[in-house]
Amino acid sequence: MNSLRYLPGDWYALVNDEHIVLLPANTSAEQINGLWTKLAGTTTVEALLSELLSMYQMNIAALPNFALVSRDSAPHLVLRGALEFAAQSAAGVEEISGAGVATWTERKLGEATSWTLRTGSANLEVAFALPIGSGIVRVSSLSWGTANGSKAGGPCRCCKHRIRRRTGETNGCYAKDG
Prior knowledge:
Elements (H helix, E strand, L loop, with lengths): L4 E11 L3 E5 L5 H13 L3 H11 L10 E5 L5 E14 L2 E7 L6 E4 L5 E5 L11 E2 L3 E11 L33
Antiparallel strand pairs: 1-2, 1-8, 1-9, 2-3, 3-4, 4-5, 4-6, 4-7, 7-9
Helix pairs in contact: 1-2
């Protein structure tokens, strides 16, 4: 997949060529390692959700906030909690959140040209987003797209500030690549 980037933060992002699993900072090392092992052999978002549910003995009340995202150009995602996913397509921007839902929000989107997954804890001291192909990193947001920088006049990927049309400068955002 091309141009997946992240801003450092507190959440764990488990990333491989097919999927992304996002888990909160208080997730145990045993759970992270267990999901990482399962991620290597899992081919669907549904299988990852089943694994996550199994880790919590099917107790929905005990489930942490999380995100499961396929890295297809037409993403399939599951969000729990106040995580936000915004996908840009030829039809416009579609925004999805897991906030205010007792279980989780699941969506299969159409073809996207770019997307951003935000935890709500943006690290504004970071100068630019870092690339990730596969591995486990601590993140505040993840962005994917062919250019992975906001076009002039479009929203910043990390914090939704507008970018000035002519200069490309941000209005108060410290993430230099937008």
